[in-house]
Design brief:
The complex is a heterodimer of chains A (376) and B (275). Chain A has 376 residues and is mostly helical. In chain A, helix 4 runs antiparallel to helix 5 and helix 5 packs antiparallel against helix 11. The two termini of chain A are 38 Å apart. The model of chain A has no long low-confidence stretch (mean pLDDT 90). In chain B, helix 3 packs across helix 5, helix 3 packs parallel to helix 6 and helix 5 packs across helix 6. Chain B starts with 12 loop residues before the first strand and ends with a helix. The N terminus and C terminus of chain B are likely disordered. Classes of the chains: A mainly alpha (376), B alpha/beta (275). At the A-B interface, helix 1, helix 2, helix 3, helix 8 and helix 9 of A face helix 2, helix 3, helix 4, helix 5 and helix 6 of B.
């Protein structure tokens, strides 16, 4: 064993290469499963739980997508970003711009067209990708200068970015709403017509459980793969001790910026899904308060824990719905629940651990295995 | 005996007239040193002499006002610490700086990760290269923990380790970056005699096993005198002596720096010291 310690990494890599066919299968299988699971959620779970809970599940999924992406920056890398709603807003605008004006130009109506994965939904998927890319580009622009800052300073700069995105949204031009007006103008010409303060409206309602959970599962796969890899450990190292991380050869600025960009990309997709769910994208809805809500989900779930954020998102979306009958008191109950969690578990529900890393999960698994052995 | 003559090629680590001031305070002035390939050199001095500042200059935490740092003959001063680390300089910290929440194994794998070639997309797609690199990382990290004698603690959180093991983990982590030069900042601080003896044997074995050259800061004179081939002594940032352990032990300037000169003895000792 110890003779291997003297060897360099590259000397050992050749001997440890996996079978390429098997590896390709293992690499792609989770995405196939994600697709299938998203189908199941859409066609089986949705009808099973009814209309109200379908709406709640949509909100939960979008919250998982946004908080899960924030977790990469806030949880893994420990960089306190308060501008996540800004990326959401930019992604939402880019996607809405493509689907609304695209629908008007190609289909002659703003209403959704086509069946499952038909032309309308493909346009929408293109919008999601565009939303992600636009947000990612802004992630680079915001991240490069600001991620050299630490702690409070970074929080203030990202907060500023979120507010700038909101204000820019509010001063955009009026949105032409009839087919002739849209047809005679070019795409670029329409780039400023995002509805201003009253919001970008008549966004086709393409968001459904399939798309939300497809992107949620893809995010979870990528977040998992990132966390248990060198790149992810480098981010955790930045969070744990930036000076030591840098001394061990980790380019901390670069690591933080790439985390920020990946995070912004999925926030952009989240924004696109949000816009096509609500139908109206109001900049005032995606301001500072929304960013704070997302940070709360990450903190309550457990900074850096993927399963924690899923739990946090589910709880914080469902809780106010359950308290709905208490009408105006429900926000007080919600706030009290937050205070209680922070007092009882300041590290969040899951802490930094994943579900399968907790002691009670391991004990449960051991008991199950023991039981099986006893039965056989 | 001094071993400073590097023979063919460049010394593993060389500094030329490094200087650094904080405002009006000259923290390090005209610091020059050469660690030969495979050498084990010591850097000593009283508290506050500027030893750790020298380490911070070498590793790029501080930029020198003047002077050069050469790693294997290549200038690295003015570069970022991460760049210098990838060039082959690794260090441990006097005030331990582990990745506390991560497991012992992850601490070492994190450091080894800088030698991987797969980027974000290969990572997210889990390509064969990435998978092979992660396997090699884990294997190498375990082997390193084995050498340092802490393999049985691999799944524990780094911050929960006892003090001595934390120091060992710092060394394992530094070695994982595949350094040519290893800077050890007080590796036996706070250890008992038995632990010190084990650490001494370990430091000596590292040179052969990993082919590293070592520069050591240490307050434990017994250890420094026994294992270092050449010792540099600094006080108030100024180099006051340099040479083999035997020379250093009898150097009046060194004795004065450590013990001071009694007022009544100063006059008597003065002439001898000048000679």
């Amino acid at each position: 064993m110890s003779d291997r310690a003297g060897k360099t990494l590259s000397e050992r890599v050749g001997a440890l290469r996996p079978n390429p066919v098997v590896n390709t299968g293992l690499s792609l299988a989770p995405f196939v499963v994600a697709f299938a699971l998203a189908m199941v959620v859409d066609t089986v779970v949705g009808p099973l739980v009814g209309a109200t809970w379908t709406e709640i599940l949509l909100d939960v999924g979008i919250a998982i997508l946004l908080a899960g992406s924030l977790n990469v920056v806030n949880g893994y890398a420990g960089q306190f970003s308060l501008g996540h709603a800004g990326f959401m807003l930019l992604g939402g605008y880019a996607a809405a711009w493509l689907t609304f004006y695209g629908s008007m130009k190609f289909f002659g109506t703003w209403e959704p067209v086509g069946g499952f994965l038909g032309s309308g939904q493909l346009l929408f998927l293109g919008g999601c990708m565009l939303g992600g890319l636009v947000a990612a580009v802004f992630g680079v622009v915001v991240g490069l200068p600001s991620l050299r800052l630490r702690g409070d300073y970074l929080a203030i700069v990202t907060l500023g970015f979120g507010e700038i995105a909101r204000v820019l949204g509010q001063i955009t031009a009026r949105q032409p709403k009839n087919v002739e007006q849209v047809a005679e103008r070019s795409w670029w010409d329409l780039a400023d017509n995002l509805g201003g303060a009253e919001g970008f409206s008549q966004i086709p309602n393409y968001t459904r459980l399939f798309f939300v959970y497809l992107f949620v599962f893809i995010l979870l796969i990528l977040a998992y793969r990132l966390k248990y890899s060198s790149k992810g450990r480098a981010l955790l190292a930045v969070r744990e001790n930036e000076i030591a991380a840098e001394a061990m050869g980790i380019d901390t600025t670069r690591a933080k910026v790439s985390a920020f960009v990946m995070s912004a990309f999925f926030a952009g997709i989240g924004g696109a899904l949000y816009a096509h769910r609500v139908g109206v994208l109001k900049p005032t809805e995606l301001g500072f308060q929304k960013s704070i809500d997302l940070v709360i989900i990450v903190v309550i779930g457990g900074m850096g824990s993927i399963t924690g954020v899923v739990l946090g998102a589910a709880i914080l979306v469902i809780l106010p719905e359950l308290f709905r009958e208490f009408s105006e008191y429900r926000m007080i109950a919600y706030a009290l629940a937050l205070v209680a969690v922070m007092l009882l578990r300041p590290q969040g529900i899951m802490g930094v651990k994943e579900l399968w890393e907790t002691s009670w999960w391991r004990k449960g698994v051991a008991r199950l295995r023991g039981g099986k052995r006893g039965g056989a | 005996m001094t071993g400073a003559s590097s023979g063919a090629g460049h010394p593993a680590l060389e500094t030329r007239a490094l200087s650094l001031s904080f405002g009006g305070l000259k923290a390090v002035s005209e610091f020059s040193l050469a660690v030969p390939v495979g050498g084990l050199c010591g850097l000593i001095g009283p508290n506050g002499a500027g030893k750790t500042t020298v380490f911070n200059l070498l590793t790029g935490v501080y930029r020198p006002d003047e002077g050069e740092v050469l790693l294997g003959g290549v200038r690295v001063d003015g570069r970022k610490p991460s760049y210098i680390a990838r060039c082959g300089m690794a260090r441990t910290f006097q005030n331990i700086r582990l990745f506390g929440e991560l497991s012992v194994l992850d601490n070492v794998m994190t450091a080894g990760g800088v030698r991987t070639r797969s980027g974000l997309f290969r990572t997210l797609l889990r390509t064969p290269l990435h998978v092979a690199e992660e396997r090699a990382l884990a294997e190498r990290a375990l082997a390193l923990l084995d050498v340092l004698g802490i393999a049985h603690r691999r799944d524990e959180q780094a911050k929960s380790l006892p003090y001595g093991d934390q120091r060992r983990l710092e060394i394992a982590r530094a070695l994982a970056t595949e350094p040519r030069v290893l800077l050890l900042d007080e590796p036996v601080a706070g250890m008992n005699t038995q632990e010190k003896r084990a650490m001494r044997a370990l430091i000596q074995s590292l040179r052969e096993q990993f082919g590293v050259s070592i520069l050591l800061i240490e307050h434990d004179m017994g250890l420094v005198m026994e294992i270092c081939e050449q010792i540099t002594v600094i006080d108030h940032g100024v180099t006051i002596a340099r040479g083999a352990p035997a020379q250093i032990q009898n150097d009046p300037a060194v004795i004065e720096a450590y013990l001071g000169v009694p007022d009544d003895a100063a006059a008597a000792a003065g002439p001898e010291g000048a000679a």
